[in-house]
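Internal tracking record. Fields below are filled automatically when a chain is submitted to the structure queue. Please do not edit lines marked as system-generated. If the sequence contains nonstandard residues, flag them in the REMARKS field before resubmitting.
Queue: standard
Priority: normal
Entity type: single polypeptide chain
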Amino acid sequence: GDSVITVQLTEEDKVEDDVVFYLVFTGSTVQHCTSTRKINPGSLETISPGHDCCETVKVALCASREGHPVLVVAEESFQFVQDEAYDAAQFLATCAGNQQALNFTRFLDRSRPPAADVDFLDEKVALAFRHLKLPAEWNVLGVDQSLTENIPRETLMHFAVRLGLLRLTWFLLQQPGGRGALSIHNNEGATPVSLALERGYQKLHQLLTEEEAREPDSWSTLSHTVHSGDYSVKHHRGLDVYMLTAET
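SYSTEM-GENERATED OUTPUT FOLLOWS
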C-alpha cells in the first residue's frame, strides 16, 4: 500500500467540477474504496490501499454526482505483489519465539541504519504486519511460549525497541503476548522497557510505560487510520485522500 496511483481520463470523461471520482478495489476477501484528488481536468491521483494478500483484484473507476446514480466509468485489473516489507513482516511473524532467528536479527543493530531509513522501515513493516493473515493462535512470544516461564530470551518486542521502531512496537503491543513481553529479560538482562530507556528513546519509553498511552498522530506523517470492527478508514495527509476498507 501507500503508492501513488494516477488515473488518466479520456476526453468524454472530463466533466464538471461537481463530479466526484473514486476507485473501488474488489479482492477475494477485502474491498477498498478510495477518494481521489484532481490534478488537472484530465488526471486524478489517489493512494493504493494495503491489501491482505498477493492477488489480482478488479478496480473500478466510479463517478458520483449529487442527484444522479453512481456511474462506473472504467474497469481494470490491479495486481498486489509481495515486496521486501511484506517479506520482512512475514519473516518476523514466523520467527516469534525462534531464538536463533531473533538473535540473528541483532546484526541490524550493529549496522546502525540512518534515522530516515529506520523511519521508512518502521512505516512499511508495520503497514505490512497489519495486513498479514496471522494465525488465530499467534503470539508475540511465539505459539509455544508461555507468559509464566521466567526464562531469559529475545523477543519480537526487544527487536522492535532496539531499532526504535515506534509503529511496529505499537502494533505488537495490541497483539496477544505484547504486554507480557515487556517484562521479559533477554540474555543480557535487558527488558524492552530498559532498552528504550538505555537508548534514550523517550517517546518509545513513554509508550511502553503509560497504561493509557495512545498512538499520537504525529508519529505517522503519511497517514492516520481509525479501525472499527471489520472496517477501517485511513486518511492520507500528503494527498488529502481517504480510504475505506471493509471485509467482504
